[in-house]
Amino acid sequence: MKTIKTNHTTKSETGAVLTQLFAHANPKNVEGMARFGIVSKNILGLTTPFLRSLAKIHNGNHPMAIELWNSGVYEARALAAMIGDPKQLTQMQMNAWVKEFDNWAICDGVCIHLFRKTPYAHKAAKQWCKRKEEFVRRAGFTMMATLAVHDKTASDHVFQQYLAIVKKYSTDERNGVKKAVNWALRQIGKRNLPLNAVAIATAEEIRRIDSPAARWIAADALRELRGDAVQKRLLHKK
Fold first, then answer.
1. 226 and 218 in contact (C-beta within 8 Å)?
2. What pLDDT does 238 receive?
């Protein structure tokens, strides 16, 4: 089925895309995804390359992105993140979407492809990490991690503040949260030499907390942040 690129969309166009998604459903892939913790109510088992091929056609079609998200289909939502326009996405929409995250993959994908590009990215990071829901809190730390990589204009002070939040929530034992906390700690520590030193100091403080999650987060982060590969890259970058 040929899909025509457009800046405007109708429900029939979105329906055609959904038809393509369902036509390529692969139940065997669904089973494999579940083994990696990617579980959702409506999941088709589609590959990332296939979704990217559709994203190239519909890139920037924000109305379609909204309709795809509202379908509730996992792959449609992943595609919505790829084609959505961060300039058109509102804070209200972001807060509505984040509440519906039901696995780590949709959380990370939406944050990386769409949310971190919005003007509200840093505000969302600070707000969501304080929420109790597992994947909302994960989204907060995922935003910190991806902003540490991609936001070249943010000051070191912004990420130093994030490190204090990382320490505060390092005792959250939920797998989805502790891995994102660790991710944020490592990415902030790889941003530059000054932040590397502060991140290492923060990890040392976290390591002394009487919590299995905190000890794992710290040990894993320290191994990378003190490693030769990171240190050489940061010295070269200086």
1. no
2. 67
Judge whether 124 and 115 are in contact, CB under 8 Å: yes
Q: Tokens standing for 104? A: 């780590």
Banded pLDDT at 237 (limits 50, 70, 90): confident
In which region does residue 132 sit, left (phi positive, over 0), alpha (psi from -120 to 50) or beta (all else)? alpha
Average pLDDT over residues 17-44: 95
Domains of the chain: 1-85 (no CATH), 91-238 (1.25.40)
Alpha-carbon distances of 192 from 73, 121, 184, rounded to whole Å:
39, 21, 14
- In Å, how far are 89, 122, 144, 182, 191 from 127, measured between CA atoms? 17, 9, 11, 18, 22
Locate 4 and state its tokens. Answer: 């025509």
The band of 10, judged by pLDDT with boundaries at 50, 70 and 90, is low
Query: Which residue, 94, 108, 105, 84, is CA-closest to 187?
Result: 108
Once rounded to an integer, what is the mean pLDDT over residues 184-208? Answer: 98
